[in-house]
Amino acid sequence: MPSANSSPAASAAPPQQIPLTCSGHTRPVVQLSFSNFINGTKNYMLISACKDGKPILRDGSTGDWLGTFLGHKGAVWSAVLNTDTTKAVTASADYTAKVWDAINGTELISLPHEHIVKSADFTNDEATTILTGGRDKTIRLFDLNHPQQPTLVSTRSSSIRNIKWSKPQQLAIVATDDREITIHDLRSPSPAHQLQLSAPITNMSLTHDHSLLSCAAGKSIVAWDTKGWRVAMDVKVDFDVSVAAVNPQRSRVVCGGREDLLIRCLEFESGKEVEVYKGHHGMVHDACFSPDGEVYATGSEDGTVRLWQSLPGVPYGLWQRKQDNSLCLSA
Question: Do 249 and 293 touch, CB atoms closer than 8 A?
Fold first, then answer.
């Protein structure tokens, strides 16, 4: 089992890294999600959930503000775009999940719940069915054609922290506050798989192709192949991990520390620490990679979203070379 050294002094000096800082939120940013490539182009979007109750949509490669979804009356804990980036679903402390038109920001439907909704995700390309979960410990499936009659998928023994939909396997992946991840086939009342962690789960992430599930829990980063649920990575570190996400190429893991506020990149195969960065002024709550793996985004207690290059020094998007061959951010 590999061990990752967390000390910046023990690592080789990383390449120069100039992150893009995306302002706009007024409270902690708690969840991030990149879209797929849009209509066969290389363009993609980024949506952020924040305790200020105002999810923001941005250009994924530049961080440019595109719009804010207005309508929630409490913290927004989750925000996800559908397959073709035409709709968004959000989960909130105002006891609702909402579906939005991602093109013009219009609220399409509000789905009432009995308690705080912590997570929601689409379960089909048409964005007509949605999974939700939260403080009432219940997983619900909503058919937007009949929103008043949700299907009760399962009730857990503790609050639901996060829900992800694995499209290839057609499975719901549910993380709870009792150190457990359950895998649900919606056609069956019983979980298809159960994954036990040794510490409370702080974050759960799927790779963009949904083939790998990663989890931060205590001082561990664990990842499983979603086909067969074989452990693909199990790394112990000497700091409390707040977030961990794996790039689409399965070569890098980005993670954040709960107390030292550092951003670290590890090798996926070995768990070796290869880069360490300062940037945020508060704990990192979430991280995710762009669909091509060239960029990763981090959201923090400090109210900002930051975009980082997976390969620092390589021209990409706004990161361009000057005449002296140094890298700069273009205006």
Answer: yes
Amino acid at 126: E
Quick: pLDDT tens for 193-204.
899 999 999 999
The alpha-helical segments, DSSP class H, found in the chain are none
pLDDT digits (tens, 9 = 90+) for 223-260: 999 999 999 999 999 999 999 999 999 999 999 999 98
Answer for the pair 121, 134: CB distance below 8 angstroms, yes or no: no
The answer to whether the CB of 18 falls within 8 A of the CB of 319 is: yes
In sequence order, what are the residues at sequence separation of 6 or more whose Cβ sits closer than 8 angstroms to the Cβ of residue 8?
262, 276
Cα 79 to Cα 156, 167, 228: the distances in Å are 22, 17, 28
One-letter amino acid for residue 102 of the chain: A
Count other C-beta atoms under 10 Å from residue 37's C-beta: 17
Look-up of token digits 């768990």: 271
Q: Which residue has the tokens 């559908």?
A: 82
Quote helix, strand, coil % in the chain, to nearest 5. Answer: 0, 50, 50
Structure-token pair, residue 213: 């599930």
Residue 110, Cβ neighbours under 10 Å: how many? Answer: 15
> Around Cβ 68, how many Cβ atoms within 10 Å?
14
**Residue 173 predicted with pLDDT over 50:** yes
The CA-based diameter of the chain, rounded to the nearest angstrom, is: 63
Q: What's the rounded Cα separation, in Å, for the pair 234 and 219? A: 11
Please check whether residue 1 is in contact with residue 21, taking contact to mean a CB–CB distance below 8 angstroms. Answer: no
Does domain 3-329 fall under CATH 1.20.120.1200? My reply is: no
Q: Which two tokens stand for residue 136?
A: 């009432």
CA angle, residues 159, 164, 167, in degrees to nearest 5? 150
In the chain, where the domains are located: 3-329
**Residue 9 DSSP one-character state:** G
